[in-house]
Each structure stands twice: as C-alpha cells, then as structure tokens.
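Annotated sample (chain length 166).
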Amino acid sequence: MGVERAEPFPLAGKSGMTMVEVIVAVLVSSFMVTSLVSVALTARIDDARSERKILAVVGLREVSSMLANFVTADTGVATIRGPGGGPGGWSMTSGPIIDHFGGVGGCGAPRNDYALAIGDHCLTGVLETFEAPPYNARVVYRVNNAEIVNGSPLPAVTLTIAWTEP
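Output written by the structure step:
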C-alpha cells in the first residue's frame, strides 16, 4: 500500500470553467460592448452637428455673395435696376428670401428697403428646412458705415447665423 498524494489542482484537466472565470469574462465583454456603443453614438451625433454647421456656412456664403451685388454708389438712379426685389430691385426680398427687421433674437416685420440700409436685417428663406423647428435657424446681418470713400459710405457688414441645437 502506497502513500496517497493529494493533487495540487483538483480541477486540472477537467472540462468547464470556474465561477470566477465566468464573471471576469462577462465583465470584460460588457466593457467592450459599452465602449463600442459609446463611440458609435458619439460619431452619429457629431455627424449631425457637422451637417448643420456645413448648412450654416453655405447659407452665410450665399448671403455674402448676394450682398456683394448690392454695393453701388447710388441706389436712387431709376435707370439702373438692382439685383434684388423691392423698389428698383435694391432689396434682399426676392424669391423665397424675405428681409425682415430684427436681429439674432428673431425676425420682425418684413422690410423692402435697400439691402445695405444701416441696421439689423434678418433673412428667412435662405436655409429652407433648417429654419423650421426644432432648429429655427436665422441668417442675420448688421450693416454699419465703417468709413467714407470718395464721398460715399462704405458699408461694413457683419454676418451671423444662429440656430437652436436640440
């Protein structure tokens, strides 16, 4: 009769996992899944915000190029038709675009005066569906006389776009 020895690892060579191994595997898997879901959601939200920023830049560039067409020495000359709507074609109100009194806080009553008249102008119709709720985007520009060049005022225009981020 020999001496029986106890095995140091009684489960060695047996199939299956211990409870600790199962818990660790579940924890590692949950960390991986949580990280992947978080990255996917963040990327989707950033894409949507980037699209809105691109729309805003396109709208600002469109308005900027339109305003460049209104720079002239004399808007009272009846023989020269302006590039827009309104009296003599010198208003930004033309087609889908409507020029309003007002600023970033909101658009007021429609106006039909010179596009580079001193003051705040709030445009609707530039950004189309982006102007609808929940974003309520508005293109606003402010005209100031920065200096007089050859006896004519040189307008200084500041363009702004504002919208609500839901």
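Annotation: The chain has a mean pLDDT of 79.
Annotation: The first helix runs from residue 19 to 68.
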